[in-house]
Amino acid sequence: MYAGHIGGKMKKIVTIIGARPQFIKAAAVSRVIRRSYNEVLIHTGQHYDKNMSDNFLDELEIPYPDYHLNVGSGNPAKQTAHMMERIEEVLIKEKPDAVLVYGDTNSTLAGALAAVKIYIPIIHIEAGLRSFSKSMPEEINRVLTDHISTLLFCPTDAAVKNLQREGILKGVHKTGDVMCDTVMHYIHNMSSKKAEVFQHLEPLYTKATDLLDQWYLATIHRAENTDTINKLRIILDALESAESRVIFSVHPRIKEYVDILNEENQYKNICFVKPMGYKDMLFLTNNAVKVVTDSGGLQKESYIMKTPCVTIRNQTEWIETLEGNFNILAEVDKEDILNKLKIKPNIEKYTQYYGNGNAAEQICELIAKDV
Ligand code: UD1
Ligand code: UDP
Questions:
Q1: Ligand 2 geometric centre to CA of 369 (Å)
Q2: CA 355–ligand 1 middle distance (angstroms)
Q3: Which ligand is nearest to the CA of 296?
Q4: Which of 47, 82, 221, 251 is catalytic?
């Protein structure tokens, strides 16, 4: 008998995904977990546009979900409640040995709550991250999920310490980061021809995106930066004055505001493009002069690839990235953003904190001891 088997029968894990970063995390873990477990995949449908969802399943060879709940967008309580209702139905039918959730989205919390209410153990990957800002929906999701999980896989020492401070000691393991696994898996196989990557880009307002020699790469989607159009205007005004042209991947959350702000194509320095595929994104991040973002995943990927990043937020969960100025926080203020973009990182201060690409292997070995 080997890990994950009982009486010759494979044990069952239900994995819940739903938002873009979760597809990228699942790409690392599903591949490994399926060697020893019967993985049943639920896609909540939190993200549903082809280029926010299905394209990643295809590109990253994630098995097609066994259940697609098609929950879609909505106010937080309604969206989370819809997910919980439908996840519970699946859990009652499938009777898994554990439920696996990733990160801190509404899909994460819905999966965890549905499971704990019917006494199914929860495995939380990317546990222990904290911004210490209760006004972030993600902070609520991750704190609640951690407090009801049985196995908690932390990417870093800082995450383990955060859990210790909250009295969560049992079932906690530091394993490295599964997004780092995905970067390392695809970096050798990423789109390598610049011309091809630029050909794939789908500009929002002009026919073609010029083939650039150098570029900044930008994404913005956090509620705190997009709750008013004015904040987004300030960020775009800063990028308009940046030293290199900016490739801006437009998350659907901000599309309407960008349409209004760029109504007369006034942002000449910014190429607004539709959300792009993972490998193209990897190429553009790896070769960017700078990244400007508020994305958790992109801050970390920039750090892993040693591309300097300016994060437009008051705090970050990925505090290691701040060392040596590889990642610098900026306020929603044009001068502050432009000043922070001038700061150079100190390569001597660089430490690879996120593991060596085998976090998923470690996680699956540890799961096998308990599930
Ligand atoms: C969610 C997560 C956030 C994560 C982000 C990754 C929560 C609370 N937030 O934020 O932590 O960083 O995903 O991208 O779970 N929309 C579309 N098409 C889509 C998806 C979204 O048009 O495929 C639009 C809808 O108008 C929707 C809005 O984007 O209302 C926001 O989507 P939602 O999933 O609620 O939040 P995100 O901002 O994507
Ligand atoms: N990403 C992508 N294409 C894009 C923008 C982002 O593949 O056009 C990837 C990015 O490389 C990272 C992940 O999406 O792996 C981050 O997701 P997002 O910023 O939506 O969420 P967060 O990490 O902030 O929760």
A1: 32
A2: 28
A3: 2
A4: 221
Q: What is the pLDDT along the chain (371 residues), one digit of tens a residue?
A: 345 666 668 999 999 999 999 999 999 999 999 999 999 999 999 999 999 999 999 999 999 999 999 999 999 999 999 999 999 999 999 999 999 999 999 999 999 999 999 999 999 999 999 999 999 999 999 999 999 999 999 999 999 999 999 999 999 999 999 999 999 999 987 666 898 999 999 999 976 678 889 999 999 999 999 999 999 999 999 999 999 999 999 999 999 999 999 999 999 999 999 999 999 999 999 999 999 999 999 999 999 999 999 999 999 999 999 999 999 999 999 999 999 999 999 999 999 999 999 999 999 999 999 99
**Smallest CA separation from ligand 1 atom 24, residue:** 253
Give Cα 322 to chain centroid, integer Å. 18
Is 101 in contact with 145 (CB distance < 8 Å)? yes
Which residue's entry shows tokens 């508020």? 294
pTM for this entry: 0.97
Residues with CB under 6 A from ligand 2: 20-21, 24, 219, 249, 275-276, 278, 281, 295-298, 301
CB-CB neighbours of 343 under 10 Å: 13
Measured CA to CA, the distance from residue 228 to residue 39 in angstroms comes to: 41
Query: Which tokens in the block code for residue 51?
Result: 């280029």
DSSP 3-state assignment of 80? helix
d(CA 145, CA 15) in angstroms, rounded, equals 14
Give the helix ranges, DSSP H, for 312-358.
334-342
